[in-house]
Amino acid sequence: MKKNIALIFALIGWFSLIAQYYLHIENRTSSILEANFRFFTYFTILVNLVVTIYFTSTVFKKQEVEEKSLGYLTAITVYITIVGATYQIILRGTWQPTGLQRIVDELLHSVMPVLTIIFWYLFENKTNVKYSQILKWAIFPIVYLIIMLIRGNFSGFYPYPFVDVTALGLKKVLINSLFVTILFFIISFLYIRIGKALKK
Q1: Cβ atoms of residues 87 and 109 within 8 Å
Q2: What angle do CA 69, 192, 74 make, to 5 degrees?
Q3: How far, in whole angstroms, is CA 181 from its chain's centroid?
Q4: How does the average pLDDT of the chain come out, rounded?
Q5: Virtual torsion, Cα 167, 172, 177, 180, nearest 10 deg
Q6: In 3-state terms, the chain is what percent helix, strand and coil (to 5)?
């Protein structure tokens, strides 16, 4: 059952990413090369890509290999929960997509987070996930933030309005980033705590 569910979720993920890439390139306001760089500066895209690869790999993994991957599912669930929460709370009101863009938008920001949480609930070996792993999970978003800010300084492009140094200034962006970082640690702690409670 696990592999069948993973396959369905992976197909939804790949459809969402490919459709978003098509729309991104079709509606680009820069060169093809720059548009490709910008596509992968979105945390939403990177996280959905990681989640979709995880589901895809689950379809082909042997059980003994899966057992060694403790904590990975919780980590990506934390990432995509942040994607969903940030979008619903901060970004949803900033634009009104229509047509295919609206469908893809909901898939990436609403559907995939919910599907990942369901998969985590059903299949994560929650008792073996440790609080100490949270610091390792933090490396990915912190590195992303640093690279995104460095590239934005040279290109002038920032993927999200709350990290736009040009509009807000570096101090405000760092404060916003601090709040998101705190949110990351809170959500990580809650997933581990809830997971252990569920197993009891």
Answers
A1: yes
A2: 35
A3: 14
A4: 91
A5: -100
A6: 85, 0, 15
CB-based contact 116:77 (threshold 8 Å) = yes
Query: What does the CA dihedral 170, 176, 177, 182 come to, rounded to 10 degrees?
Result: 150
The DSSP code sequence of 103-168 is: HHHHIIIIIHHHHHHHHHHHH--GGG--GGGHHHHHHHHHHHHHHHHHHHHHH---SSGGG-HHHH
Question: Tokens in use for 186?
Answer: 């809170």
d(CA 67, CA 73): 11
Number of compact structural domains in the chain: 1
pLDDT of residue 71: 85
Arithmetic mean of pLDDT, 13-42: 94
Each residue's pLDDT tens digit, 168-192:
999 999 999 999 999 999 999 999 9
Per-residue model confidence as pLDDT tens digits over 97-153: 889 999 999 999 999 999 999 999 999 988 889 999 999 999 999 999 999 999 999
Looking at residue 64, what is its pLDDT? 52
Helices vs strands, H then E, count in the chain: 10, 0
**Domain interval for residue 143:** 2-199
| Rounded CA separation 62/138 (Å) | 28
Q: Which residue has the tokens 């933030």?
A: 145
